[in-house]
Amino acid sequence: QSVLTQPPSASGTPGQRVTISCSGSSSNIGSNTVNWYQQLPGTAPKLLIYSHNQRPSGVPDRFSGSKSGTSASLAISGLQSEDEADYYCAAWDDSLNGWVFGGGTKLTVL
Amino acid sequence: EVQLVQSGAEVKKPGESLKISCKGSGYSFTSYWIGWVRQMPGKGLEWMGIIYPGDSDTRYSPSFQGQVTISADKSISTAYLQWSSLKASDTAMYYCARQSRGIAAAVNYWYFDLWGRGTLVTVSS
């Protein structure tokens, strides 16, 4: 059971907007920044969003992140077939003194 | 090119020892923490621990403390993850990742911005 809670699956049709939630607590999301990682099938994770809402160079602006209290969200607008992947949220946990990940959300583009 | 290159897939028997590696290049290896992340078959990401190659300061997840050893050789820009006695439950993909730091409003924040391709470890009798 993961410290951060994500829905196991999400889906949408091309062009739609989808959101993925990530719920934590005061010791992780509540007091530290949230990062999101995208893992395409058979590949290593890739940094998608850092510090709640910052995109690394090369990540399309269709991807955005937000945080409120002890929860965070990843939004993907203009959904494309190549967005089909697993998405993970992560944050440092002050109580565990280490990184915690969400269980991952498998995004299906219908 | 900035990259982390991990050692190749391993097939081992229960009880055997193993050391896998992660070599950094294209950046100052001693200036960034390196983390290790486990992904069991069909499962999510689990943080195992991190090491600062500059001084070998190491932190472990409570779940992995005593189960693995993380080390680094800064002279060859390489971090390691090792087991003294493998179990079938250690079968997984293991990723190394560089932990970078940013600052906003005088507050530090961290993230894994560079990942290796992973090392698949299979433990089977």
SSE series of chain A = EEEEEEEEE
Structural class estimated from helices and strands of chain B:
mainly beta
Shape of chain B: globular
Q: Mean of residue pLDDT of chain A?
A: 96
Account of the protein in words:
Chain A is an all-beta fold and 110 residues long. Helix content of chain A is 0%, strand content 45%. Chain A contains no helices and nine strands. Chain A is globular and about 40 Å long. In chain B, 0% of the residues lie in helices and 58% in strands. Chain B has strands spanning 3-6, 10-12, 18-25, 33-39, 45-52, 57-60, 69-73, 78-83, 92-104, 107-115, 119-123. The model of chain B has no long low-confidence stretch (mean pLDDT 96). Classes of the chains: A mainly beta (110), B mainly beta (125). The A-B interface holds A 2, 32-33, 35, 37, 39, 43-47, 50-51, 54, 56, 86, 88, 90, 92, 96-104 and B 35, 37, 44-47, 49-50, 59-62, 95, 97, 102, 104, 109-113, 115-118.
Keywords:
heterodimer, A: 110 residues, mainly beta, 3-stranded antiparallel beta sheet, B: 125 residues, 7-stranded mixed beta sheet, 4-stranded antiparallel beta sheet, 58% strand, globular
